[in-house]
């Protein structure tokens, strides 16, 4: 992950800024220089000594290159779909992309997917206060298992002291191809993906079971995190796992201090272990030993709440690279505990927020009852509805612009109706959306229930758009009065998160029995079409996704209208570039004073605008 060097080099070669007003349509021809480029391919690729298989990669690797942005700036990231037979989108996990409504990377929600052999320029505005640890991943099918990479937003002013930061990127590896997994998950009866074959740490993994079962000609080496004695490191843990709820600890280093969760700084919180679900991120301060007894210590990571335990290792390496490659230990050095339900639910924000709504301000509580239907095709339902991107025939945002009656390309997706939703537990059954008006204060309670056959599962729930205040989790059902009293007793606000765990409090219960909740509170401030979904990729494919529409029609469509928006409205439309076609793209943010980054044009090149000519300078 050294690519950031090149990325910075690219930024410093830019000599020339073109003046672009917010909402202006610009042609991104050869003279336009994006701030970063990601190229997505599919290749026969081997990870952790398993046989090579069809794998979706970013810039030829998994994880893909690290992107490093700075808060308070706007960036253009060009994403190429170099695959021949698959669609692609890129989601900027944890960032709030309210400024550029088509850039959230959700297929059939905020945009048409990028067709094969096309590219799409994502406009990414990172407001002040968003510094922290994020990642990017495809939002199509099972691609995110491998088509993903770290995204760090640097601070202008870091509130904690440390010597260096290091990324610890966690992924899963399955022995089946994505296509086989996807097909099985929607088959009747269900054909499960299989368990995680290997948890990968920074792209490498080695598990004891793998080695004993293993191929003698292949020695799986472990990832090394190089450190020096007596220094403090900020370890940025990124839970990019498809399925694994990971529990991890370091041999010989049991003082970890959590300082950031999902892009928000927290009061320091000491712990000896970390639990991290798919979609979650934490920064942890670790101070190395002044006089280490040996040169390498294992980090041990295991899955929890699955029928079997997947176990992997990485190495905390003191000093120079070892003469021999780091290998699996013969026996696991640590005995990791069982999961802790409610882990880090008590984190306190570093600074209290003036925006945190009191319970008196809550205008609506929506309970999202999740249930697994097992008879027939196995699907996950929210308030009795499943959602996958095969449900809408047109992306919601596109449908909003087109209006059903105004086009022949948009059959059957009318405007989301708040009235229909209010009469149906918050979900409009026609569009399968959860509409809300700006200014509402929502309390979203995610309620776990026993499946048709009684089973219970855990789910890392992730919200796109604005972050929520995480009110915590518990057994049974949510009691708002008791929860308020509990927060009042703690004397601090709940943490801001974008992904939090819905736990299970038993492995099974009665069909439909409510057992286990997670509650969020948020102000509806960000206009847009946002997803809320379980981040387990298998569950997403099985329907565990919802779509939320914030703002009314005027607010949603008022920012940029016809004809500027037209290129976004067709699959492979004008904003999708290819070899022979320079896309015409709306600059939602523009680059007014104080926001000077945001793509650039090479010196001496004329900037061609669709309207208004080429303002350069
Ligand atoms: C990805 O690869 C392309 C060339 O294939 C390169 O131009 C680009 O800088 C790389 N991106 C990053 C973030 O390293
Ligand atoms: C992928 O590579 C493996 C060997 O590493 C080979 O056996 C297999 O045929 C390859 N698959 C394809 C589709 O090329
Ligand atoms: C790509 O997306 C378009 C539009 O949603 C769809 O019609 C097409 O079938 C998709 N192609 C593939 C290969 O999935
Ligand atoms: C794997 O490790 C064993 C024992 O350390 C060694 O003898 C063997 O040569 C290694 N094989 C490869 C392919 O590196
Ligand atoms: C947390 O850990 C740090 C570093 O080990 C230590 O200095 C601090 O006193 C601990 N705080 C608490 C509340 O235990
Ligand atoms: C974890 O929980 C199981 C079942 O409740 C129990 O048998 C086991 O001893 C526990 N392990 C640890 C390390 O606490
Ligand atoms: C899941 O959604 C599809 C439409 O996308 C629908 O046809 C199907 O009936 C739904 N399944 C259940 C169990 O509701
Ligand atoms: C969309 O179409 C409906 C039905 O014709 C109409 O009532 C509504 O005003 C239209 N909305 C917009 C924003 O054009
Ligand atoms: C309907 O579509 C046309 C272009 O096809 C556009 O000019 C017109 O403004 C659209 N009307 C509405 C109400 O969106
Ligand atoms: C579980 O409960 C639902 C709703 O009451 C019912 O439709 C379904 O048939 C039940 N499933 C089983 C396996 O009993
Ligand atoms: C909710 O909690 C409050 C305060 O602890 C308690 O008085 C009340 O009975 C609880 N409500 C329910 C429905 O359990
Ligand atoms: C959760 O509540 C149920 C029902 O009261 C109980 O059977 C179960 O043991 C509880 N789970 C835990 C972990 O406390
Ligand atoms: Cu789930």
UniProtKB/TrEMBL annotation:
Task: Provide the leader sequence positions.
Answer: 1-22
This protein's source sits in the domain of life called Eukaryota
Q: Which Pfam families match?
A: Cu-oxidase (PF00394), Cu-oxidase_2 (PF07731), Cu-oxidase_3 (PF07732)
Q: Which residues form the Plastocyanin-like domain?
A: 40-155, 165-318, 415-549
Q: Which UniProt keywords apply?
A: Copper, Metal-binding, Oxidoreductase, Signal
Family the entry assigns = Belongs to the multicopper oxidase family.
Q: Which NCBIfam families match?
A: ascorbOXfungal
> Know the name of this protein?
Cupredoxin
């Amino acid at each position: 992950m050294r690519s950031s060097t090149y990325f910075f080099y690219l930024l410093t070669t830019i000599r020339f800024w073109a003046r672009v007003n917010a909402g202006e349509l610009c042609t991104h021809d050869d003279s336009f220089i994006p701030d970063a480029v990601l190229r997505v391919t599919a290749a026969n690729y081997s990870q952790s000594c398993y046989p090579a298989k069809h794998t979706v990669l970013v810039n030829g690797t998994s994880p893909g290159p690290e992107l490093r942005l700075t808060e308070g700036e706007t960036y253009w990231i060009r994403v190429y779909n170099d695959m021949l037979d698959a669609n692609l989108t890129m989601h900027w996990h944890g960032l709030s992309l309210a400024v550029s409504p088509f850039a959230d990377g959700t297929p059939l929600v905020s945009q048409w997917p990028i067709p094969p052999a096309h590219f799409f320029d994502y406009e990414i505005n990172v407001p002040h206060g968003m510094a922290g640890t994020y990642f990017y991943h495809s939002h199509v099918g099972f691609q995110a298992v491998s088509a993903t990479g770290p995204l760090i937003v640097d601070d202008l002013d870091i509130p904690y002291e440390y010597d260096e930061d290091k990324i610890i990127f966690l992924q899963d590896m399955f022995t089946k191809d994505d296509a086989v997994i996807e097909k099985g998950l929607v088959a009747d009866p269900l054909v499960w993906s299989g368990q995680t074959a290997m948890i990968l740490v920074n792209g490498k993994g080695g598990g004891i079971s793998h080695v004993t079962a293993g191929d003698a000609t292949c020695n799986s080496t472990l990832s090394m995190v190089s450190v020096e004695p007596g220094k403090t490191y900020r370890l940025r843990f990124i839970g990019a796992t498809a399925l694994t709820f990971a529990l991890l600890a370091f041999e010989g280093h049991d003082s970890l201090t959590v300082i950031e969760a999902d892009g928000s700084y927290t009061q320091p919180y000491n712990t000896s272990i970390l639990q991290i679900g798919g979609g979650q991120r934490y920064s942890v301060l670790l101070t190395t030993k002044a006089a280490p007894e040996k040169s390498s210590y294992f980090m041990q990571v295991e899955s929890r709440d699955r029928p079997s335990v997947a176990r992997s290792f990485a190495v905390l390496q003191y000093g120079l690279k070892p003469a021999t490659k780091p290998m699996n230990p013969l026996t696991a050095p640590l005995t990791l505990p069982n999961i802790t339900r409610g882990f880090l639910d008590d984190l306190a924000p570093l600074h209290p927020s003036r925006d945190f709504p009191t319970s008196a301000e809550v205008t609506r509580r929506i309970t999202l009852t999740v249930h697994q239907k097992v008879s027939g095709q196995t699907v996950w339902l929210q308030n009795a509805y499943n959602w996958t991107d095969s449900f809408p025939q047109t992306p919601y945002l596109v449908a909003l612009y087109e209006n059903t009656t105004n086009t022949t390309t948009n059959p059957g997706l009318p405007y989301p109706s708040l009235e229909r939703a209010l009469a149906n537990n918050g979900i409009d059954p026609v569009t399968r959306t959860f509409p809300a008006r700006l200014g509402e204060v929502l309390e979203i309670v995610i309620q776990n229930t026993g499946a048709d056959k009684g089973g219970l599962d855990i789910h890392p729930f992730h919200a796109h758009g604005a972050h929520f205040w995480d009110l915590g989790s518990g057994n049974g059902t949510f009691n708002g009065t008791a929860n308020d009293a509990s927060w009042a007793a703690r004397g601090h606000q709940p943490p801001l998160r974008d992904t939090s765990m819905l736990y299970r409090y038993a492995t099974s219960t009665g069909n439909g029995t409510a057992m286990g909740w997670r509650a969020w509170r948020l102000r509806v401030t960000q206009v847009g079409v946002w997803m809320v979904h379980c981040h387990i990729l298998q569950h997403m494919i099985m329907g565990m996704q919802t779509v939320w529409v914030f703002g009314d029609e005027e607010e949603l469509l008022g920012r940029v209208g016809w004809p500027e928006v037209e290129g976004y409205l067709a699959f492979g439309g004008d904003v999708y570039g290819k070899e022979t076609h320079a896309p015409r793209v709306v600059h939602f943010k523009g680059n007014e004073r104080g926001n000077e980054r945001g793509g650039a044009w090479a010196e001496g090149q004329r900037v061609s605008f669709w309207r208004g000519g080429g303002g350069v300078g």
